[in-house]
């Protein structure tokens, strides 16, 4: 796998079609040997909300720039010391391989 770069920002967490909470995200993109873009990373939201939605299969993130991403929690259980952050695997409207920003300090996608 080749590292493509980061995707960071804010958006709205959705359960089904219901908006749940404002969410910050920090994802990394990778290009598989088969040419597929994959992504994973961290979402941050209020701890109480994270506890309510953890494990749900119908979670999506609508980013400020309009992308709709499907989220799946990477862990089986939320740690008891949860600080409002969780690791997720990301699918959906991911940027094409050439659109990721390889600068780890960058905040947004390259145009």
Determine the fraction of residues in helical runs and give it as a percent range. Answer: under 10%
Strand content: over 45%
Q: SSE string, helix = H, strand = E?
A: EEEHEEE
Distance between the termini: 24 Å
Biggest sheet: strands, sense, closure? 6 strands, antiparallel, barrel
Name the poorly predicted regions. 105-111
Please report the total strand number as a whole number: 6
Q: Structural class from helices and strands?
A: mainly beta
Radius of gyration (CA) equals 14 Å
> Which strand order spans the largest sheet, edge to edge or round the barrel?
1-2-3-6-5-4
**Silhouette:** globular
Count of DSSP helices? 1
Name the average pLDDT. 87
Task: Note down, in words, how this protein is organized.
The protein is mainly beta and 111 residues long. Helices cover 6% and strands 50% of the residues. The chain is built from 1 helix and 6 strands, in the order βββαβββ. It has one helix spanning 47-53, and strands spanning 2-15, 18-31, 37-44, 59-63, 68-73, 85-92. The chain has a 6-stranded antiparallel β-barrel. It is globular.
Features:
single chain, mainly beta, six-stranded antiparallel β-barrel, 1 helix
Secondary structure elements and their pairing?
Blueprint: E1 2-15, E2 18-31, E3 37-44, H1 47-53, E4 59-63, E5 68-73, E6 85-92
Antiparallel strand pairs: 1-2, 1-4, 2-3, 3-6, 4-5, 5-6
Summarize, please.
With 111 residues, this protein is mainly beta. The chain has one helix at 47-53; strands at residues 2-15, 18-31, 37-44, 59-63, 68-73, 85-92. It is built from 1 helix and 6 strands.
